[in-house]
Q: What sequence folds into this?
């Protein structure tokens, strides 16, 4: 497994496993504490794992947490997603930068997203399972949502958006979130 820094988002990393494939399919390590530690992250900091299943065209996000924020490891374990990260850390050298990734069950690449960054994705396959490993127990009172279709962010969702949650559909713009200090 190798770790690669994401230049558009300070402190973000891609963890790319080395799949071993044969006639049965493949095997790969999707988490390695030593590799995570090698880039200055504490592998023991992650306290909760979650999984979402989405159908083609679904958009989830853009989500982040207020207060101390939430760092997370995100991986598409089955199918394929178009993944989006927006840096909203005012003190970051990459503040307000966006980065886009294709994550898939074929590669099992994991994306590390630092606390203070908004995250979302769109399912590109009929079924897409996305796994999350987060560094704090989830507290719904700290949830912050930004409009997935905010013109300022101009995220190039690759497919027509077929479905979003009510919360995502009613989310405020980035400007509104920053103005009210919800982040």
A:
């Amino acid at each position: 497994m190798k770790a690669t820094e994401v230049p558009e988002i300070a402190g973000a990393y891609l963890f790319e496993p080395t799949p071993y494939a044969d006639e049965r399919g493949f095997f790969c390590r999707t988490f390695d504490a030593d590799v995570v530690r090698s880039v200055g992250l504490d592998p023991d900091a992650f306290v909760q794992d979650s999984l979402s299943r989405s159908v083609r065209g679904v958009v989830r996000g853009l989500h982040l947490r207020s207060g101390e924020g939430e760092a997370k490891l995100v991986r598409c374990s089955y199918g394929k997603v178009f993944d989006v990260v927006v840096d909203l850390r005012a003190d970051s050298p990459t503040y307000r930068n966006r980065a886009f990734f294709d994550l898939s069950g074929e590669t099992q690449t994991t994306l590390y997203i630092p606390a203070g960054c908004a995250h979302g994705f769109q399912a590109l396959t009929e079924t897409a399972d996305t796994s999350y490993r987060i560094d704090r127990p989830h507290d719904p009172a700290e949830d912050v949502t930004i409009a997935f279709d905010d013109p300022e962010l101009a995220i190039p969702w690759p497919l027509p958006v077929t479905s979003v949650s009510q919360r995502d559909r009613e989310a405020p713009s980035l400007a509104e979130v920053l103005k009210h200090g919800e982040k």
